[in-house]
Amino acid sequence: MADNEPTPAEETAARAREQAEQAALPYKWNQTIGDLDISFTIPAKFKGKDLAITIAKTSISAGIKGQPPIISGTLAHAVHVDDSTWTLTTAPGGNEKVVEIHLDKVNKMEWWPHVVTEAPKIDVTKIVPDNSKLSDLDGATRGMVEKMMFDQAQKEKGLPTSDEQKKLDILKKFQQQHPEMDFSNAKIS
């Protein structure tokens, strides 16, 4: 373990603190690599016309008209406004309604540490993507994500990334073709 890596106890404490910070937010949120969903509940008496929801490229404000917003601030990253939506549905039991906001990320290759910059962050390096969601990506994007995931896993194990392994394989092949050359001091960069 490297000197700067947290101990398992520190890691557990950090995860617990992160979960507590996220649970304290007045909304819930989750994300895939391509989009982000926010939800919060309001009393059942309110209708869509009672809501004040503004989604801009780099900011959001959502809540009940005449009351402080439930979420408001600068988005962590840009969204496609035209492809971002919100819905209002009745929660099971009928005592509350659920506001669901769907944000379409501009950068489909980036995990968000928080919805708005004013909120506590999560550790995006701990995100384990849902493999079924990888199938939603087109071939080239999926390949890139899988390569990034493989390379991250290799780095964590102290093993060469896919690009470093290719260079090693090329050097090995060249060594086999040229046994007369000394490669003992060869550095790969």
TrEMBL record:
Disordered: region residues: 1-20
The keyword Endoplasmic reticulum is annotated on this UniProt entry: no
Localization, UniProt: Cytoplasm
Source organism superkingdom: Eukaryota
A GO-annotated cellular component: cytoplasm
GO molecular function terms attached to this record: unfolded protein binding
Keywords recorded for this protein, A-Z: Cytoplasm
Low complexity bias locations: 1-11
Residue ranges occupied by any CS domain in the UniProt entry: 22-116
GO biological process: protein folding
Main function: Required for nuclear movement. May interact between microtubules and nuclei and/or may be involved in the generation of force used to move nuclei during interphase.
Name of this protein: Nuclear movement protein nudC
